[in-house]
Structure formats: structure tokens, C-alpha cells
Amino acid sequence: MFFPAEPFLRYRIEKAASYMRIGMKISPLTVLRAGIPNYILNLLKALADVDNQNEYILYTNRPIPFELDLPGRFRTVIVPFPSRHLQLWYQIGLPIRLKNDGVQLFHDPVYPLPFVLPVPGVITVHDLSNFTNPGVHRFRSALSGRFFPAHLRKARQILTDSFFSASELERLFPWAAHKINVVHLGISDRFRRITCRASLESVVNLYGLPSRFLLFLGTLEPRKNIKRLLEAFSLSCSSIPHSLVITGGLGWKYEKLLKLISDHPNRDRIHLTGYVEDDHLPALLSSAEFLVYPSILEGFGFPILEAMACGTPVITSNVSSMPEISGDSAFLVDPLSVDSISDGINLLSSSSELRESLSQRGLERAGCFSWRETALKTLEVYEKAVD
Length: 387
Prior knowledge:
The chain has helices spanning 35-50, 88-100, 129-132, 139-145, 148-154, 163-172, 197-206, 226-236, 255-262, 281-287, 302-309, 322-326, 338-350, 352-366, 371-386; strands spanning 21-25, 55-60, 74-78, 105-108, 121-125, 157-160, 180-182, 213-217, 243-247, 270-274, 290-293, 314-317, 331-333. It has 387 residues and is an alpha/beta fold.
């Protein structure tokens, strides 16, 4: 069986066993802030708050396009050797730097590890979709999934975001069960219910949104199930006054999706905002009557908690990690059934009592997830990896 991060080694700074120099890959921060980049950034900030002893060297192949605002014991190192491209920096240059920098532990927050790694390695497995469902990914990501078992073998410890992902890992790779640690992610303090009318109107006007809308938030990619959401919205349109707002950056294999939106019979009630700045998300979520997130597979599902923290009711899927994360605070639907999604939309659209109930339960549920706790449990796993 798998083992969650146990409390027996609860990391406390005043009782820290020893100093460590920890390396971490942060190159995903060079792209749009979304799921994995947000995980890295929030984890780093939480580690800075709870850990005043260890030193962190943060490795990337390109400059980070914004200020990290971390203490001096967090140092960013750019590794261009022998090339920034084709992962040569990661497979050749990084192992050399790890050894020269005296790093004692390396954490890759996306899961691959260099094939030659001179120190113990920790990986975070957010989900297994590029191994189990390579067809919904870019070619390079699908190809990397073929090396997934090798990375699991190399890792000294494995972090994963949910018990669902841990159970999938244990089912497919039972020999790795002894080093799997479930560490739920947190929710940023900036996600909170916005009640200021001027702030709400500012964001609504900025993106040209209607007065009443249901919201999808996430990268445009196949597993987010937007195709069925569009079909469900078409079924519901005659019964509800709402528009559908789709928010998120373009991911991969999105061309057919854009064509479906363009040809949708209710195109005038569908709004594409594209990528929305992080500072605008709380007001956008607070403006929506509810979030519809019928994803097929998630390792965690940040938008669920982000909406709940803003007091926004949530419709989400009854599969994968989504029931685990949402608890009894969301309306669950079958993501493979257009009728089920449509029924959920109709019910929440017509019942203000249900929306209010889900809103209150969601606020309480979001309070159960803390980046501080994520950081403390991650430090426990670091200690286990070097013990």
C-alpha cells in the first residue's frame, strides 16, 4: 500500500535535524502561470515562510520573467550548458551543477529526473495522464510518458497531490508503493470572495462579460472535456438566461475546440476571455454564478478550490481526484454524460438555495487546504529522502 506523509517526522524548524542544500527545477515558471507553475511558486513561498534553515538553489534554463521575491537563502541559477533546447541543459548541464554546487537533494516538481543524478531525487507526480492517456497530450509530453517507470525507479521519494493519484501509482507500479507520499496542495490567500462592486464591475467590463454567466476555468486541452460542456450548454440554453464564459490559455490540440465554439448554435452566448491575469481571477470567480469544471482527469484541480474560496458554487466531475478535493461541497456530475452535465447546469441555474448552500460549504472546504501545511509535509519528505 502507499504511505501518506506521516506525522512521525513532523518538520519543525526549531527541531530541524540538519542543514540541507536543496536543488529544485523551476523552469516551468518561464511559461504562463497555470497549474504546475502555480504549484512551484506557492510551494517556494510557503517553504520560505516555514523553513529558515535550509538553502535552496533553483535551477532553470532561462531567466524567470518576474521577481520571485524570496529570501537570500533561495538562489536562482541559470543553466544554459550545453544547450537550453531539447533538455540538454537538464540531462547534462544540471547534473554537473548539482555536484559542483554541493546540493544534497534534488526535487523536480513536474516528475522527470536527469538520467544521471549525483544526489537523491524527489519527484512530484501530479497525474499519470501522459502515461495512461498519451493521446490527449503533445507529442513531446506523450513521449516522456514512456520513461515514466524509469523516473519512478530513480526517485528516492515520490510526492503526489491526491490519494486518487497515489492509488493509480500503486495499482500500476506496486513496487514503488513504499515511497509514495500524498501531500495535498494549498489555496492562495488572494482567492477570497470579492464584494466590492467597483472591483467586480471593473473585471466584468475589462473582459466584456454578460451580467449572468457560468464559468469554465482551465487550460484549453482535450481532457478538460470542454466539448461535452459545449454540448451540455446547447441543451440548457433554452432553459437558462446565462451565458458561458470560457477562461484559460490555449494548451494543445485545441483547434477542433475553437471550431466547435465558432460553429456553436448559441455562439452569441459564449465568451472566450483567453488567459486572465492572476490578480483578476478572484473578481472573475466572484462574478460567476457558478463554476462548471467537468474535467475527465485531474491530479488535483486548482479551479475547484479557487472557486470555493471565492464563495462560488461548483459543478465538477464524480471521477478522478475531483470528489476527493471537493468533498461534499460541490455538485457532482458524470463527465462522460452530456445529459448529466446539462442537468447540473439547469439545477444550479434555477435554485438559488442550492447555490447558497454550495457556496457556504465551499468556503469551509477551501479552508481545509493550506500551502503552509503543504510545505511542512514536503519538508518531511525531503528529510526521508536523505535519511
